[in-house]
Amino acid sequence: MRSTPVLHVAGRVLLGADPQAEARDELWVIDGRISFTAPRRTRETVSLSGWVLPGLVDAHCHVGLDAQGAVDRETAEKQALTDRDAGALLIRDAGSPADTRWIDGREDLPRIIRAGRHIARTRRYIRNYAHEIEPDQLVSYVRQEARRGDGWVKLVGDWIEREAGDLAPCWPREAVAAAIAAAHEEGARVTAHCFAEDSLRDLVESGIDCVEHATGLTEDTIPLFAERGVAIVPTLVNIATFPELAARGEERYPRWAEHMRRLHARRYDTIRAAWDAGIPVYAGTDAGGSLPHGLVAQEVAELVRAGIPAPDALDAAAWRAREWLGRPGLAEGAPADLVVCEEDPRRDVRTLADPARVVLRGRIVA
User: Fold this and answer.
1) Of 303, 298, 305, residue with least CA distance to 316
2) Listing from the earlier edge strand, what are the strands of the sheet with 131-133?
3) Positive or negative: CA dihedral 134, 130, 156, 55
4) Which helix (H) or strand (E) holds 119?
5) Average pLDDT, the chain
6) If pLDDT is split at 50, 70 and 90, which confidence band does 3 have?
7) What is the pTM of this model?
8) Do residues 72 and 93 touch, judged by C-beta distance below 8 A?
9) pLDDT band at 44; cut points 50, 70, 90
């Protein structure tokens, strides 16, 4: 049987985001895994060169979902391939009604860490997306999705309350506290969709691990997040759509529309303040609902626009993000999931938008 060619990648192999961090001049990919030692026996070799970083992480992505709900396998495959070709080789699913476990059997698709299906209050989320339940059912559904997923559960923390005409928390504090405790007992972490301000304190004080969007952070809750080490995934490419959403819903919910505009207007200040306070920030796109896939480079660029230094914004989608999700980066023996850039992405993250090569499990795929 013919052996698989060795991949030799030369240039600058970046082992961290800090420009002063250790780097190597080359690595080899042997049988799909990283080695920093040249193979001893002669084998066919394919050579690449450039700035090498680990496969990017999209920490909020919905493969298997579109604006109407679950999609078929062919559509989910196209979504995953689009993310892959953009360099996103590790995806944290942030809720989907589709069963995407079959993707794990595909060597040509990114790895997905699933959160199961969204869990929302009755008539308080996008139709066809979530289990829509009442507070007395929350613990049982959290346990169910914790067992179905890959170590994460996704709650909908706030949404439009029709009577109030504005964003409002979905769950009583005692219900969410019991649910988060149940998820932790099952070995899962919990994250929650939150646009507004009012649900954040209850969630954090109940032990939540992460909050998606987090546009409602204020000078009162930012220190609490920092103290508890609660991460945020801002999804700034999605927050950019708030004015459009507000315009569409203004006639029916004018109070909500104005609230969404305020959250949008201060989005960069909010995220920079969170970063300055030491809150862990990770890059996620919210692709798969109304947004297209393949936007991870745009999200990193948005973090930079928010005032996060370029190396740290890159880290939010690379080394640090992989560590947060329990996946290796550029380490001896790790799966060879690589993005190769023509320029140093720590100095200019815009180079991520056009990677020279994408290598997935040792194969050049894009």
Assistant:
1) 303
2) 131-133, 119-121, 152-156, 189-194, 210-213, 231-233
3) positive
4) strand 119-121
5) 96
6) low
7) 0.96
8) no
9) confident
